[in-house]
Structures are given as C-alpha cells and as structure tokens.
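User:
I would dearly like some help making sense of a protein record. Take your time, and here it is.
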Amino acid sequence: MTTRRLKRNKRWGLLKFGFFICIFIGAFTLIWLRTTVVNLEYELSQLTDQKKELNREGKLILAEKAGFYSAERVEEVAIKRLGMSLPKREKVVFVKKTTGAIPYRVSAKSVPGSSLPVRQAGRIDPALGDASSDSGY
C-alpha cells in the first residue's frame, strides 16, 4: 500500500505544481495583455494629437493658398515682380462672346412607300429656328 500512496502523492504533487504553473502563466499573460493595451492607448492618443495638429496645419496652408490667389496678391506680383502695368483705357479691347458649335437636329421621317424611317441630319440655324439640310451627318 505504501507504493500506491507514494504514486498517489506524487501524482497529487505534480497536479498541484501544474496548477500553480498554469495560474502563474495566466497571471503573467494578463499583466502582459494589460500593459500592451495601455501602450496601444498611449500610442493612439499620440497619433490623435498628431492628426489634430496636421489638420490644423492643413487648414493654415489652405488659407495661405487662398491668399496667394486673391486678386490683390496677383496684381501685386504682376506689377512688382513681372514689371507689368495697368493698361490705358484706349488699349482695352472688349471681345464679344460667340456661340460655340452649332448643334445638330436629327429627325426620323419615313419615306413614302417604305416602312423604314430614314434619318436626316440638319444644322440648326439660330436665326431661322429650323434645320437647314446638310449632305451628311
């Protein structure tokens, strides 16, 4: 019986040792996990602050860019750096706006004696308000 008791005590001792090792490893894992979370929160806070700073800096740059494109700034650069001057009144030429390309109107008229429609293209004459025939599309 003593050998059975020794085996049982040995197993019980190994079981206790394994249990304490598992608790020890679990505790260190929880500590490591918590430390990692705290470090990540700290890094996230720093990145959030950096993002706010960069957004503020971007807004300042946009405001500065808007200042470069203001009419007063462009006029100042043209006069001082490029040596330009304001034109005299008699040298100013006004250009009238012309109409762009004239749109085409397409109609589908059927030819007598045929069931298929024939496409006809014509330029729209703004003065007449109707289409004048062209020989093609």
User: Anything to note?
Assistant: The longest helix spans residues 2-68. The beta strands are 104-110, 117-124, 131-133. Residues 129-137 have pLDDT under 50 and may be disordered.
